[in-house]
Amino acid sequence: MSIFSGIWVPLITPFADGEVDHAALRALVRRYADAGVAGLVALGTTGEPAALDDAEQDAVLATILDEARAAAHSAHSTHSADAPALPVLVGVSGNHTASMKERIEQLNALPIAGVLMAAPYYIRPSQAGIVGHFMALADASDKPVVLYDIPYRTGVRLELDTLLTLAAHPRIQAVKDCAGSLDTTLALIRDGRLQVLTGEDINIFNTLCLGGSGAIAASAHLRPERFVALYRALSAGQLDEGRRIFHELAPLIQALFAEPNPAPVKALLAAQGLIRDELRMPMTRAGDALVARLRELVGLDRTETHVAA
């Protein structure tokens, strides 16, 4: 059975004075492991991979994998190399099939849970071209593949027939669903071959109630234990409890996407002293009014520092 269920956190990349802050990154991995999340996504959109050079991407992934293994050792009270690591899914993006294939072949050697891949951006290929692209990449991968349907970033959506065609490939096991189509979401869940992880955080409750497998949720950087509790309640059929938790989280989810992701997430993590509030251009920090609103939502004292020591 596929592992792609539960709450997955698409990790931000913390910076300090313009460089990747690997100590803060390790602390975040441990924080989410302790919260009981099902897995982590490295180098997804939330991690600003377009702003990282190849060496930085490799270093970020190495840190996440190392700490995911260490967190698993701690959780199992053992230092055995056989302890299962917290699963890590790796984002692979681009619009050049051959280059992406080379990257996937490099990743085959690493202990990752799979690769997350969106449709080729900007060039707007036909659906036949999308099928050929993903089939070629899935053929090259030794790991499971999670499709990423996010047309407002790529400029092209994965049509339902395309997704159902791709579901026949043995390594294509799940989809991160950001298309905003209830018909497609329901059809994929009813088909049953792909696990459906919502990538639109406000749709977590809906998707889980329909029978989806979980979420890749940037907002789960904050209050991760409550997102895990939401998933567990709904998985156990505790609809009233799940609804109560979701209504508690909904204002925070909405505020975290009031400005481009991951700026609001980073602002609130910085307000909690976990990272520096730094992004790389062309991304910019969240506005003061939104930061104040976010701090209010999580009950932070306005006199606290916004920057980690």
TrEMBL record:
InterPro entries, sorted: Aldolase_TIM, DapA, DapA-like, Schiff_base-form_aldolases_AS
Key word Cytoplasm present: yes
Entry coiled-coil feature ranges: none
UniProt subcellular location: Cytoplasm
UniProt GO MF annotations: 4-hydroxy-tetrahydrodipicolinate synthase activity
Entries under HAMAP family matching the protein: DapA
Protein name per UniProt: 4-hydroxy-tetrahydrodipicolinate synthase
Species in which this protein is naturally found: Paraburkholderia nemoris
